[in-house]
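Appendix B. One record, verbatim.
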Amino acid sequence: MKNERPSLFLSLLPLAALIALLTLNVTVFGDDSLSFSNQIALLMAAGIAGLVGRFKKVGFLDLMSGVNENISQAVPALLVLLLIGALAGSWLLSGVVPAMIFYGLKIIHPEWFLVSACIICAIVSIATGSSWGTIATVGIALLGIGKAMGYGEGMIAGAIISGAYFGDKMSPLSDTTNLAPAVAGTDLISHIKYMAITTIPSIVITMVIFTIIGFFHTPSSNNVNIHSLNESLSSIFNLSPILFLVPISVVLLIVKRIPAAPALGIGALLGMLFAFIFQFPLIESLSEGSGFAATYAIIFQAFGTDLSISTSDPILSDLLSTGGMKGMMNTVWLIVCAMTFGGVMEKSGSLGTITNALMKLATGRTSLIGTTALSSIFMNLTAGDQYLAIVVPGKMYQKAYKDHNLDAVNLSRTLEDAGTVTSVLVPWNTCGATQAGVLGVATAIYWPFCFFCLISPVMTMLVAAYNYRIKTRK
């Protein structure tokens, strides 16, 4: 027999508790809330959801099966996270990231930096179909360049993420861009063409905002400081354009549809190979001792744990440090706790109750599209995964769109406009946690500057409200 679902009031209790705890954590712990407190908050909220489920006679083993299913879905993302940590360490030691910073500081003008970072990430992400891969490679370098120019890390991360998620959303190679039309019941090309109606204006507005900020923002650094940073980089590393072969190889692997995990793993190994070729004197200087054992220790340190190259310049010292795989463990912990919360919410029946309540709001075409967008955002908040934010509302509303004589492209576009891009704005979502961990910038600091991700769901609702290019079924 099916267990009776909990009431809407009971179903909202775990979510209300989570929001209250997360708000309190930010107030008490500030930027350090990702270290442990948010993980505990997610587990406490999962406990409340479990009590709601037990109240409705849901067995403990059933609740745990939901946790197991959710965590198993997140395992590939966790592996990618660890490999990103290894890649960051090897690319620092090999001089790849310092070379990107060195040449970037020479080419990019400070006033145009934010919009340039957005455009660069958009191009790379369209070519690779991967926002994660883009942010983990060129994004890290651009963060270093922006810091050297005196921009706040929230602004820089916002520009990087905006560009990366635009490219991810519009690329035919992207997994979410393929998933949304498959769930909605339309084809990929129609989906991309129809999505351009909302996505192109969103990115244009975003680039205008970043351009204005660039012209009116006065960086704390100046050209003299930038020149000094470049001199310091060239004195520490053997810098050469040949080092760019490493990131280019990773981009080509992803373009060739090699999965992210092996592509990043190969990138990390290539980075270490180039470290031996180009930076062996640096490796020797960092080693405690001499010989094979000391060199081997530095290599594994770069892959797995903290690696810092100290300089007299605090800005440069900050740029030349990485946490390796170890630096990703807080993010891994956060994702596991988020998946636990999402799994218990689903198996307790709370998620079903809330989504059914949202369904009742969809009375007309405009409200249907708006409710779809809100449902995707809600799934990002509760389930903690962007794929679920696409799949669950897609299945929920597919029949409703047919009943309202709306073509499936309306559904697929809305799923991407609200589901894909808002995932990175949620600290405990797999995407938000990952990008905060990769860039070393808390979600609470960068989300106000992720203009593309904030504008996209608003744009899809505006298009629906004005009935602009709302395609009906033939």
